[in-house]
From TrEMBL:
GO terms for biological process: DNA recombination; DNA replication. SbcCD cleaves DNA hairpin structures. These structures can inhibit DNA replication and are intermediates in certain DNA recombination reactions. The complex acts as a 3'->5' double strand exonuclease that can open hairpins. It also has a 5' single-strand endonuclease activity. Belongs to the SbcD family. The gene is sbcD. The keyword Hydrolase applies. Heterodimer of SbcC and SbcD. Residues 3-235 form the Calcineurin-like phosphoesterase domain. Keywords: DNA recombination, DNA replication, Endonuclease, Exonuclease, Hydrolase, Nuclease. This is Nuclease SbcCD subunit D.
């Protein structure tokens, strides 16, 4: 039996806005949280003497992390080298760099020839001799057009057509790998993909334009004893036969992951059988407090009471309250801030509720025209559920608008879609708004 630790979506260096500078170290506390989470995974791999570690992709927020972040990542994984535990690092969408072939942040481990380390940046099969016997790992990194298609092949095709062409190629390429497998040896497919059976938590709001998904039926082949997935941040089993699991991210990236449990997978693998156990990590707690003050006689007191009801120490807190225009003067955010002092960090988001009924997007009347960015801003102002990512959406939209409409990036291609599919949604919104 081969014992495997499967973790994914580390995103080290993300979510700094939810932390603060630790005066003792000079580092952002959220960076320290993410480092601690990774350290716990590696501790566990060493303590339980696993035969292999599989990382499902998305090491950093992008392919060019600052050196101190790269070093913290390397320092933890280096302990696996010392412990003689082979490790496969899969390349996720956040790890890819658009410049140059093999330009992923993780490729440096291959270039340096780190003993026992394999970088999965192509669809290929690796046979690994572990101390408990051989294992076959088929690596499937994040798919982009250029992974399996050439430029002339995609010329003039719609995004949907490119997607289905990509899936056809994937089917063929995967079949090629499957035919080369040794049927006697336990086999794992390690893939950074969005499967059609995956469920999102709070991100379901983002399903405006569906991102590029791979049908589970293409991946769920009997030759695989386990499918180790990465990309979706919510832990879930997406297929039982063969067993396919997203361990999810190891720390919360933002409020969309508020209610999700965080952890990694411990796996016992033999040919034809995989037993997985989800191991929790003590991720930092994110807490949204929502208060409706519009009917309250003493809004300030009601708000204070809501804030003081729970012990918020060490939590990342988001206070959202609704109030009427005539109540604005009565609420003192400084006092509320003092009451939130104990929290690790906090944001206060007052929402003014108009007493008059109004159309959903009053600014978008039939006879008025708006520039795309102001139209998007109006749209976002009316979508409270998107408020956490509104700045990112606006930035992404501005990026899209800045691009040469006849250039290479005129179409939002699969590789440019964010992990939450939000960029595609933005692309759709922007295009629709342009038509207004
Ligand atoms: Mn990803």
């Amino acid at each position: 039996m081969v014992k495997i630790l499967h973790l994914s979506d580390i995103h080290m260096g993300s979510g700094f806005s939810y932390g603060h500078i630790n005066p003792e170290t000079g580092l952002n506390t959220r960076f320290e949280d993410f480092t601690r989470a990774l350290r716990r995974c590696v501790d566990s791999a060493i303590a339980q003497n696993v035969d292999l570690v599989l990382f499902g992709g998305d090491a950093f927020p992008d392919a060019t992390p600052p050196p101190y972040i790269q070093q913290a990542f390397a320092r933890e994984f280096c302990r696996l080298v010392t412990a003689d535990i082979p490790t496969v690092l899969l390349v996720g969408n956040h790890d890819q760099h658009s410049q140059g072939a093999g330009g992923a942040s993780l490729c440096i481990y291959r270039t340096l020839g780190v003993p026992g380390f394999i970088v999965g940046d192509t669809l290929t099969t690796h046979r690994i001799e572990t101390k408990s016997g051989p294992v076959q790992i088929v690596t499937l990194p994040w798919l982009t057009r250029s992974t399996l298609l050439t430029r002339p092949e995609t010329q003039g095709l719609s995004m949907g057509e490119v997607g289905s062409l990509l899936l056809d190629r994937l089917r063929v390429a995967l079949e090629g790998e499957i035919r080369k497998l040794d049927p006697e040896v336990p086999t794992v497919l390690l893939a950074h993909v969005m499967t059609d059976t995956a469920r999102y938590g709070a991100e379901r709001f983002l399903a405006v334009g569906k991102g590029f998904t791979v049908p589970m039926a293409i991946l769920a082949r009997a030759c695989f004893d386990y499918i180790a997935l990465g990309h979706v941040h919510k832990y879930q089993r997406v297929c039982e036969s063969p067993l396919a699991i997203y361990p999810g991210s190891i720390e919360r990236l933002d409020f969309s992951e508020e209610k999700e449990e965080k952890g990694y997978i411990m796996l016992d693998l033999t040919k034809g059988k995989a037993t997985a156990e989800f191991c929790s990590l003590p991720a930092r707690v994110f807490k949204t407090i929502e208060v409706d003050l519009t009917e309250k006689e003493d809004p300030q007191a009601a708000l204070l009471k809501a804030v003081q009801k729970k012990d918020l120490s060490e939590m990342v807190v988001r206070l959202v309250y609704k109030l009427r225009a005539d109540q604005v003067e009565v609420v003192d955010n400084n006092l509320i801030g003092e009451a939130l002092e104990k929290a690790h960090s906090y944001t206060i988001q007052p929402q003014l509720i108009s007493q008059l009924s109004r159309p959903r997007l009053p600014e978008l009347g039939v006879d008025s025209s708006l520039a795309p960015m102001s139209a998007l801003q109006s749209y976002l102002d009316n979508r409270e559920d998107l408020s956490a990512i509104a700045p990112d959406i606006l930035e992404a939209a501005q990026g899209l608008l800045n691009e040469d409409p006849y250039g290479d990036k005129a179409i939002v291609a699969p590789e440019e879609i964010g992990s939450e599919g939000d960029l595609e949604a933005v692309g759709d919104s922007v295009r629709q708004l342009r038509l207004l």
